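Researcher: Next sequence.
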Amino acid sequence: MSRMADSRLPASFMAPGTSSFADFLGVEAPDLLPSSRAVPAGAAGDLAPHGTTIVAATFAGGVVMAGDRRATMGNIIAQRDIEKVFPADEFSVVGIAGTAGLAVEMVRLFQTELEHYEKIEGTTLSMDGKANRLSALIRANLGLAMQGLAVVPLFAGYDLVAGQGRIFSYDVTGGRYEETAFHSVGSGSLFARGSLKKLYREDLDAEGTVTAVVQALYDAADDDSATGGPDLTRRIFPVVHVITADGGRRLPDAEVSVIADRMIASRMQRPDGPAAPLT
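Model: Next structure:
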């Protein structure tokens, strides 16, 4: 009997309380939160691999998010096939830029946060609610961000109430900003956004939007050494997620490779990519 009693969860685990898993963890086991870990004084950013470019764009039926596969550590390629885009829940996705290890932990905590809320409340968070919860997790990491271990995600999903895809960007303090049409974060984001300014159109369908974001990642890799383009010899391609009213799905590499191969073949004739119309 005593052994059974000792194996039971503490009463606090069964008591009514907050629907935020992160808040609960902060009370019951704060040492498990990524933001609670101490690092030596001074800049620590060069000691850990960093994820780079993430791109998202909306279309009439939803939203697309894609990320390149390269992680860097200083001037070294730390990993060639890292995954930086993850489903947050059935109708949303999050892409990571910044310190890779902390970013992946934050994504896992965010996934648990959304699942915990749904179990406690019996319903899913609204799109704005999800964006706000992610903002709070980023804000909790501010101390580490000030030492160079920043995490700057990009969040997107399909809003079932509004009936459209939405994109949210953040800064290291947890500031949340809703973006229109498309956005990009990471070291190659300036080049990716510049590419999308010319390639994006409001009448693009899902396939056209996927092609546009893959083109944008290629343009980012063309000018930013920390961003990896499609690796044809190793057959490593961007991770691409499409979210619609039916839910989200990751495109198989076989589908992405067809788009990437077609794009690279056209770049053999025009290295700078497709030209946008002047009007």
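Model: Helices lie at 2-6, 21-28, 100-121, 127-140, 142-145, 189-199, 206-223, 253-267. Residues 52 and 111 are 21 Å apart (CA to CA).
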